[in-house]
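Entry 14. Structure prediction run on the chain below.
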Amino acid sequence: MELFDGAAVPGAEVKPLMPLRVGVIGYGYTGKIHAQAYVAEPLAQLAAIAESRPENLVDLPPGVQACSTYEELFESGVEAVSICLPTHLHCEVAVNALARGIHVLVEKPIAVSLEEARCMLRAARTARRVLYVGMTHRFYPELREAKKLVDDGAIGNIVACNDCALEHVGFLNTPPWYVEKKFAGGGPALTSGIHLVDRLRWFTANEVSMVAGCASNKYFGADVEDAGQMFLRFRSGISAQVTVAFMREPHPLLCDLQVIGTRGSVIVHTWRGYEIWNETGHQQKVFYTDEPHRAKVRTGIAGEISEFCAAIMEGRVPWPSAEDSTQSLRVIMAYYQAAATAHAVELGDVDGV
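Output returned:
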């Protein structure tokens, strides 16, 4: 993303290494983890939290200002914010923050539509501020180590991939807006599948050229899908199948990525570890044992927050860029079109979003 007309602000000095005054907007499950991560981040000073429900503002870290609206938080003098709100609010709040010169980290997905995402990208360019989308899977150690193995040729050239995300809809007290399209933008293909598409693009270092798929809402009968499959073809010829579902009954959280190569394969069991098969045999590595899921998620959020703060301090575009993350949204929206029409959607060689 040409946020700063290049990788860094032309002619600008790097911001002095002093803690950024940051705020968190939305103090639910994810917002609380953001707050904890900021408290532990050397480059940040958590200054304020905005939450419209007073009952949620009972366990703020010491010295943090409580705000009832995001406008009040903006007036507190923060330099950067994390937006941890329902997806349909991302665009409105982010554009307002950027217009005030405030850097923005927004939880995935960036927005409920490509139009809103593009609006946010334009606002960031105009304001010359960082807009970053929290793609936590890029920072989980099991995924990063497996990615390095693939890059180092441990399984040869990638041929095909499978990825899945199955989660009980009551897991982590899933909020009701998750199954309402006007608030969430979509079902598990968007709220969870955006991670899968992002990490497939990351592992393959390739862009999607064609999307096909189907969706259903057999479980809940809501206006978003509660289960679906998508088939992706990449420009290089690699293919991938993605399966997502909100499970109605109690069900283990499964999020497994399989990468098949010419000389072996690797499976990443997200929030557990990975396995690899190649000419040397079978190896596996376990990263987590009895840690609660919240602690595992915090690892990813702490990683994205560190990258966000460092990018601001260094005057550079963060990794991955907001434009990169919007490419994943573009794939998901093409999937919804394919599922609705029963026809594959060609994305071609267009890189812009």
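The first strand starts at residue 20 and ends at 25.
Filed with the rest of this week's runs.
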